[in-house]
Amino acid sequence: AARRMIAPFINQSVIQMKNTALLYVVAVPDLMYRSTIIVAETFRPLEAYTLVAVIYFVILYPLVKFAQLLERRTDV
């Protein structure tokens, strides 16, 4: 049972990370909060928010692919 729970657990973790945007593992201050401060100081929202999107993508895409790999292995 534990083997079959690993992939859904990773999927749920990815969804939770997307929904809350906490990412306190990567950096203590929230990424969106910091980018908002940068935008207020530099008036360059495109660059700041694009960088945040890239950071989220770099973190979440490998997790999603790992979860898909685990799902394929456990679905027999």
Could you tell me how far the N terminus lies from the C terminus, measured between alpha carbons in angstroms?
14 Å
Main sheet properties = none
User: Which secondary-structure class do the elements indicate?
Assistant: mainly alpha
Question: What letter string, H or E per element, gives the SSE order?
Answer: HHH
Radius of gyration: 16 Å
Shape: elongated
What proportion of the residues form beta strands (DSSP E)? under 5%
**What's the total helix number?**
3
By DSSP, the count of extended strands is: 0
In terms of quaternary structure, what is this?
Answer: single chain
**Helix content estimate:** over 70%
Low-confidence stretches: none
Arithmetic mean pLDDT: 82
Short characterization:
The chain has 76 residues and is mainly α. The protein contains three helices and no strands. Helix 1 (2-20) packs antiparallel against helix 3 and helix 2 (31-42) runs antiparallel to helix 3 (45-74).
Model description:
With 76 residues, the chain is mainly alpha-helical. It is 80% helix and 0% strand. The protein has 3 helices and no strands. It has helices at 2-20, 31-42, 45-74. It is elongated. The two termini are 14 Å apart.
